[in-house]
Specification:
three-stranded parallel sheet; 5 strands; two-stranded antiparallel sheet
Length: about 150
């Protein structure tokens, strides 16, 4: 994966502050001589669940009604708004440049959904980990061309 990420020639590397996301992009950042910068807005979905082995039925419910939020958590619609906003911010901050972003399955899925890609619970369950998606923007306020996963 390092070779594939370095071949994109990113000018910057950003990540969720969660360790597993940083660990995914750190090897490529090291080869490129770039720091991994973190943004709280790239964190994974706060599903509002206490730890449970029976989490999947809750996720199915959330994907069936993306506006639903558990007490103390965020809805998938809120996650889409947060994730699209942070991606647009990175596009504005790095105009015309490739930016490598390390994230998590649900936030990546909701970024794609927020940009109009049809994504549902079944898509999330089948998503390879790690997966590389490419979003190409003509400008910060445009809808991206999306390819992946690879």
């Amino acid at each position: 994966m390092v070779a594939a990420l370095c071949a994109l020639r990113p000018a910057a590397v950003w990540s969720s502050p969660y360790r597993r996301a940083i660990q995914t992009v750190q090897p490529a950042a090291d080869v490129l001589g770039l720091p991994v910068r973190t943004l709280g807005e790239l964190r994974e979905w706060d599903d509002g669940l206490a730890y449970t082995d029976d989490w999947e039925r809750h996720y199915v419910q959330s994907w069936a009604d993306p506006s639903y939020a558990r007490p103390g958590g965020e809805s998938l619609d809120q996650l889409s708004a947060r994730s699209v906003a942070v991606v647009r911010r990175l596009v504005r901050e790095h105009p015309g440049q490739v930016v490598l972003v390390g994230g998590h399955g649900t936030i990546i899925s909701r970024v794609l959904a927020g940009f109009g890609v049809p994504v549902g619970w079944e898509t999330v369950k089948r998503m390879p980990m790690p997966a590389i998606f490419r979003l190409r923007f003509a400008g910060p306020d445009t809808r991206p061309e999306v390819s992946g996963p690879s």
